[in-house]
Amino acid sequence: MLQIVFDALSLGSLYALGALGIALIFGVMRLVNFAHGDVIAFSIFALLWPSTDAMAIVFAGNLPWFLLIPFVLAVGAGLSVLCEIVVFRRFRNTNPATMMIASFALGFVIRYFLLMLYSSRPKSISLLPVLSQPVEILGARLPLLQLITIIVTIAILFGLVIFLRRTRFGLEMRAAAENFSMARMLGVRANRVIMGAFALSGALAGAIALIFGIQTGTADIQMGAAVMLMAFISTVIGGLGSLAGAVLAGFLLGAASVVMQVILPVDARPFRDAFVYGAVILVLLFRPQGLIAARGTKERV
Amino acid sequence: MSYLSAEDVSVAFAGLKALSSVNLKITPGHISGLIGPNGAGKTTLVNVLTGFQAPTSGAVTLDGKALTGLKPHQVRRRGIARTFQGGRLFRDLPVIDNLEVTGVGLGMSRRAAIAEAEAMLDWIGIAPLGNRLAGTLPYTDERRVAIGRALMGRPAYILLDEPAAGMSAPEAADLSDLVRRVAKSLGIGVLIIEHNVGLVLGLCDHIVVLDSGAVIEEGDPAAIRDSEKVRHAYMGTAADTVRANLEVMA
Questions:
Q1: Cβ proximity of B60 and B69 under 8 Å
Q2: Which residues share a beta bridge with A135?
Q3: Does residue B51 lie in a domain region?
Q4: How far is CA A283 from the centre of its chain?
Q5: Is the CB of residue A281 less than 8 Å from the CB of residue A227?
Q6: Does residue B96 lie in a domain region?
Q7: Contacts of A187 in chain B (CB under 8 A)
Q8: CB B49 within 8 A of CB B80
């Protein structure tokens, strides 16, 4: 039983972090950033730098943890900010559909860049192997990583709340997320806020990359896409633009996946995702605006 | 003498004249009213004065210096603030944050912005509302917060776009008191757009009447009350409305 709870929480953590990365950017510029998953993939491959060999973890992966973590977060943030400067900034006043297509294209560019360098075969990496050891808590045996994932996610969420509530930048970001043009009229510095949102979102992508990398022990150019899909669904059922909604929906989705895995009859388990998506459709039928609707996205006269 | 003025301002939208050669001057400590039928160009004029709309011709000047070409936040930094129809607050943010972000946008430190926001809420008399989400406020309080937001950084001029719309008579009277205090004790120049002509007549030192984009009359409340032209402008629209309704029915 406890095992199920921890499974649900740790899977939900990943979805919640991913959803948060998407919701942050959607909030400030109404962009659904489909390149987010590829930023995750890129961050994990950064561990192989500067080698492109099939086997080796040459440089970055061998860093001690206190350098490794900031390194991966910085790679994610850096790439994300670069995406904004090179691509999204030029689409700022276009309609959301155009921006979304641009983000798809950008995602492909990043993915095929990785494909060219590293080929499509997943690479085996062993990162911080100590974290894969099991620990025993209240009678349940859990990988240490699962526990750390949950704790780190909760810490990140708290940190983000404090950042948004207590800092000047956070204040500007909340205002901009609700009504960008009004915030701009009041003198909030738009470029800084948007860059900050991309940096935060990218750092979150880096965090997911780390957790995923340690969990699976592989670096795969497709890995971002899998999280991205669930994260995107979380932001939609959470209410696009609502950060709290994205996190809540991420955890719910994680829980739904794990619970289905347990309660579905064995024969139906391969179709677990179909049941999860079915539940998503049900939620959207009853609450098309999402669980927590963001006011900023509502039409106002 | 310091002043904010619109000089020969004209605005045309795709050939349609929204404003034609409008002149208007507001001075610190005085309350000016801007009235006129729907579609007369009142909000357009406020948009021009605050940098939201570039005039097709003419200029906006502050103490004789042209403001034309400045963006809204640059105009705001020069001490010309405004409110919007319906308040347009950040509804998901607490009241205090609505004021604070305005202060920060004006270049204050966060600490200074919080201090001024608290003092402002207190001055308006809505200090207990500070931590409520702006979206949960009743109409009248929302308007007060909007005025508080516009007062952040102590602008020299404040332009209020229909601050009393939808208010009951006692609520409108409270609002009048607040506006009077803004002008008389803070020494801020006020321009108020309002459909409630009674409120404007009771509150303003000077009234400008717009109709179809042109100033048809201006003067003190007594002069406006007696003006044949003003009566005609208002009666005219009333008659038009009646006629239009009759046509629909037929």
A1: no
A2: A142
A3: yes
A4: 21
A5: no
A6: yes
A7: 73, 76-77, 102, 104-107
A8: yes
> Which helix or strand (DSSP H or E) is residue B11 part of?
strand B4-13
User: Buried b / exposed e across B229-238, counting CB within 10 Å, b at 16+?
Assistant: ebeebbeebe
* ipTM higher than the 0.85 cut: no
Phi-psi region of A123 (alpha: psi -120 to 50; beta: other; left: phi over 0): beta
Residue A282 resides in a domain: yes
Q: Residue B208: enclosing H or E segment and its boundaries?
A: strand B206-211
Residue B91 and residue B94: Cα distance in Å, rounded?
A: 8
Angle of helix A223-238 relative to helix A243-263, nearest 10 degrees?
110
Under an 8 A CB cutoff, do A184 and B73 touch? yes
The answer to whether B244 and B70 are in contact (CB under 8 A) is: no
In a domain, B26, yes or no: yes
* Residue B245 within a domain: no
Q: Looking at CA atoms only, how far is residue B155 from chain A in angstroms?
A: 13
Q: Closest chain A residue to B135 measured between Cα atoms?
A: A295
Rounded to whole angstroms, how far apart are CA atoms B60 and B32? 17
Residues B201 and B113 in one domain: no
Counted domains in chain B: 2
Would you call A167 an interface residue with chain B, using a CB distance cutoff of 8 Å? yes
pLDDT tens digits for range A74-95: 999 999 999 999 999 888 878 8
Give the residue carrying structure tokens 């994300």: A80
Q: How confident is the model at residue A206 (pLDDT cuts 50, 70, 90)?
A: very high
Q: What CATH number is associated with residue A156?
A: 1.10.3470
| φ, ψ at A222 (rounded to 5°) | -90, -10
Nearest-CA distance A19 → chain B (Å): 20
Tokens of B177: 């008191």
Is the C-alpha dihedral spanning A120, A123, A128, A129 positive or negative? positive
Helix or strand run (H / E) with residue A172: helix A168-178
Q: Is B127 helix (H, G, I), strand (E, B) or coil?
A: helix
Summarised one tens digit per residue, pLDDT across range A255-287 is 999 988 888 888 888 888 888 888 888 888 988
Q: Look at strands B57-62 and B31-35 and give their pairing.
A: unpaired
Q: Same domain, yes or no, for B108 and B96?
A: yes
Domain with B122, as residue range(s), is: 85-154
Cβ atoms of B141 and B134 closer than 8 Å: no
Structure-block tokens of residue A301: 């006269």
pLDDT at position B117 is 96
What is the pTM assigned to this prediction? 0.80
Q: Please provide residue B202's backbone torsions phi and psi, each rounded to the nearest 5 degrees.
A: -80, -20
Q: Which residues lie across from B82 on neighbouring strands?
A: B159
The answer to whether the CB of A43 falls within 8 A of the CB of A75 is yes
Mark which of B122, B154, B186 sits at the end of a domain: B154
Strands B4-13, A218-219: parallel, antiparallel or unpaired by DSSP?
unpaired
Query: Which helix (H) or strand (E) segment is B84 a member of?
Result: none
Instruction: Write out the residue range of the structural domain in which residue A83 sits.
Output: 2-128+140-295
**Pair B111, B143 in one domain:** yes
Would you say B232 and B219 are in contact if contact means Cβ atoms under 8 Å apart? Answer: no
Mutate to test the interface with A, among B92, B133, B142 (most CBs of A within 10 A): B92
B193 in the same domain as B163:
yes
